[in-house]
Amino acid sequence: MFPVRSAAPHPDQSPFEIIDGDPACGLLLLCDHASNALPSAYGTLGLPPEQLQRHIAYDIGVRDLTLQLAAALGAPAVLTTYSRLLIDPNRGEDDPTLVMRLSDGAVVPGNADHDAAERAARISAYHRPYHETVAARIDASIAAGHPPAILSIHSYTPVWRGNPRPWHAGILWDSDPRFAVPLLETLRAEAGLVVGDNEPYDGALRNDCLYRHGTARGLAHALLEVRQDLIGDAEGVADWSARLVPHLKQMLAEQPELFQIRQYGSRCAA
């Protein structure tokens, strides 16, 4: 078993958290929205504390789920340690939603008047180091002869703009089917489980995290979304970890194509 640090480091120390694992397991776990913390210099971005407990600040349940999967699979993982409200690591550096001024009805005062210089400073201090670390982990695995499949862990609200979301989970992907389609099929085979195919979001987003580290590099990848009410407590996280681990172990053991570097292109608009 490989070590897993259970306490997230303070975001003033590092914008990312690394979980050690064995590259030979064939899997790299990513968690872009793991934390609702903010560096001390930014306070609460002018928001009342209760807003930082909402989904606008982070993906509820995903850090614990990622840690449990990493421990059970012996897989390396890279997680963020700061809130998506500071800067969103699942967006490209040129994305207009990289720093949100308004999120699900909440005005973010600390972002409302940010300028190009502040945006560049946040990219340099918080966004780019995370992605450089992910890239370095991938490079090391490839150099060791183990190109990894990448699984990114996210969560979503059970209700959006008054509309209940029927899916228990969703698999998001672009054009590479190697990881996403088998994972989608194996989860859909479970009785009573409703799993969306590119629902509740579309996985084709130019320059997002998996575009950058999966699509562009020809690595098999998938983004898993789990509904937040299902992983909002320790019991739910344990249930989903127990559900996912055997599926992932079987896929990693039986599908060698997951570890081959291949280009599939992208559905993203040029």
From TrEMBL:
Entry superkingdom: Bacteria
Keywords: Hydrolase
Gene3D superfamilies linked: Zn-dependent exopeptidases (3.40.630.40)
Presence of keyword Hydrolase: yes
A Pfam family it matches: FGase
GO molecular function, one term: hydrolase activity
This protein's name: N-formylglutamate amidohydrolase
